[in-house]
Amino acid sequence: MECRVLSIQSHVVRGYVGNKSATFPLQVLGFEVDSINSVQFSNHTGYAHWKGQVLTAEELNVLYEGIRLNKVNHYDYILTGYSRDTSFLEMVVDIIQELKKANPSLVYVCDPVMGDHGAMYVPEFLLPVYKDKVVPLADILTPNQFEAELLTGRKIKSEKDAIEVMDLLHDMGPETVVLTSTELPSKRGDQFLVALGSQKLRKPDGINTNQKICMDIPKVDAVFVGTGDLFAAMLLAWTHQYPKDLKAACEKTVSVMHHVIKRTITYANEMAGPGKRPSPAQLELRMVQSKADIESPAIVVEASVIQTS
Amino acid sequence: MECRVLSIQSHVVRGYVGNKSASFPLQVLGFEVDSINSVQFSNHTGYSHWKGQVLTADELHVLYEGIKLNNVHHYDYVLTGYTRDTSFLEMVVDIVQELKRANPNLVYVCDPVLGDHGSMYVPQNLYPVYKNKVVPVADIITPNQFEAELLTGKNISTEKDAVEVMDLLHAMGPDTVVITSSDLPSRLGDRFLVSLGSQRHVRPDGSRTTQRVRIEVPKVDAVFVGTGDLFAAMLLAWTHHYPNDLKTACEKTFSVMHHVIQRTISYAHELAGPGRRPSPPQLELRMVQSKADIEDPAIVTEATVIS
Which parts of the sequence belong to the Pyridoxamine kinase/Phosphomethylpyrimidine kinase domain (chain B) (predicted)? Predict the structure, then answer.
């Protein structure tokens, strides 16, 4: 498999977020990963302390220039995640536009990280950049419920709402949309959360089809960091493997997440000791230990097809 | 296996040198790898063009501070390679010393990158820093012949010279020394180069022994970048699994190198086409494609125990 990904995300010295979360699993699955580190921090910002340096939009451009001057600016995928800087994000958009001109088949996988549980955790003025510039270029989008609502201006209170929101997101650009988590009630009870996906495909005869799926995902009683980054990377990998079968791609992706998270929570609780809440350091994803699950995830979550047209 | 490595090396967006060369193989072998990127460049400096930014000694210190403030500055290994900056190198030494205080069993694997084939390719003022400060805190070093001669002030013309040079290097600090390549003639002919290794042990009764090995390594007709970084990382991994058996550790390490290089050269020639010399992008190590060899290298180079 000759497949090259350009991933523009954070780097942390210790732990698994951003490029640290995305790179190893993609490499393990055989992807060539070129990575531009948007920041270098000691660790993620959920620890008591964090220190480091950020890359400016200009420095990003300089790095891209190097790639371009060597005529190696050919990618099959781009992957982006958490960003705090509008000029940086705008430079990312410029780069993607140029890379799409170099390879019109390029797939841009975008996690439009803006917030969760009703609140933004990036500067507000990123929203118009995502809405007007980033999402229109994206081919695969992985918003959570809050981000999907922000981007479309519509609230999600029912599965029907979720379907309409995903269709609105398709209209904005991406053919594949996965709502990575919602507050919709799961028919399996309150130990589960609901995720949904929608994929528009153009058949050779020119007719559009659409597959929508729904998944009930076991909730975990812990706050993880880096799981969204792992999710987007694995969705990239499994939609690459199953480009016309979102159900299969999501089952693989969500299953990998489950295995990594289970292993992590077990280890974290072991490290913390009985009755103690694990610390951020202890909750770092057990990434290298999960290599076998990453390579070949046993399916533990089944997606239901809720709509085809 | 709970084993955490701090690797302080370059990052390149594209390709496999420095941390890009070391991290994936170590992670594939189950090591936790914390990485401080000393630079971020578009690609290695053997391409026609390269662009990027460097980390200052101060910025390195700031990153380390973050780790320390969170009380997670506990490492089993530190790994360093190519550096161009004396103040950066001196900050690395300070960090290694502090990490050794935090964990006296820490093993510092150091590739003392100074030059090759008779000339230095880093600033001259790095040489005294390596000699007086870095090598004394190193536990495993992987100099080539030129670097070993430079550090000890002794030339290597025979195997006997090489053994003496390795003993001199032991006296400077490291218990494990691997001269990764030399100009010594191989008993298998001129398609091979000679590498040597030496490891000092202290027996339970307090007496010292030294195991010395010699490896005949097939030459390859190409210039690779990043292979030294991969070598040091894999020597770290295999000496971890065989701490008292340098022979086996070297066989594994040199064998991995062979598999990765063979795969790389085949692919590079395929891309370049018949009769054409492959370009630097085409010669990038086929790292992710070599995962199975990295996990479980078939032994293709045998080490001979000498003296």
Answer: 80-269
Catalytic residue at B229? yes
Please give the single-letter amino acid code of residue B132. Answer: N
pLDDT at A308: 79
Do residues B302 and B251 touch, judged by C-beta distance below 8 A?
Answer: yes
Mutate to test the interface with B, among A51, A68, A296 (most CBs of B within 10 A): A51
To the nearest whole number, what is the mean pLDDT of chain B? Answer: 96
Q: Which of A85, A111, A216, A229 is catalytic?
A: A229
What does the DSSP 8-state code read for residue A207? -
Cβ proximity of B60 and B52 under 8 Å: no
Burial of A279 (0-12, 13-18, 19+ CB in 10 A): middle
Give B-chain residues touching A67 at CB under 8 angstroms: 13-14, 42-43
Q: Domain coordinates of chain B in residue numbers? A: 3-306
- Judged against a pLDDT cut of 80, whether residue B208 lies above it is answered with yes
Residue range of the domain that includes A25: 4-274+283-305
> Does ipTM surpass 0.90 in this model?
yes
Domain at A155, CATH number: 3.40.1190.20
Q: Which of B5, B6, B286, B288 to mutate to test the interface with A (most CBs of A within 10 A)?
A: B288
Asked whether residue B193 carries a pLDDT value surpassing 80, the answer given is yes
- Its CATH architecture, for the domain B3-306, is 3-Layer(aba) Sandwich (3.40)
Which residues, in sequence order, are CB contacts of A225 under 8 Å at separation 6+?
A: A15, A17, A44, A46, A280, A283
CA proximity to B106, closest of B212, B248, B240: B240
Q: For residue A95, what pLDDT is reported?
A: 98
Largest CA distance in chain A: 60
C-beta atoms surrounding A56 within 10 Å: 15
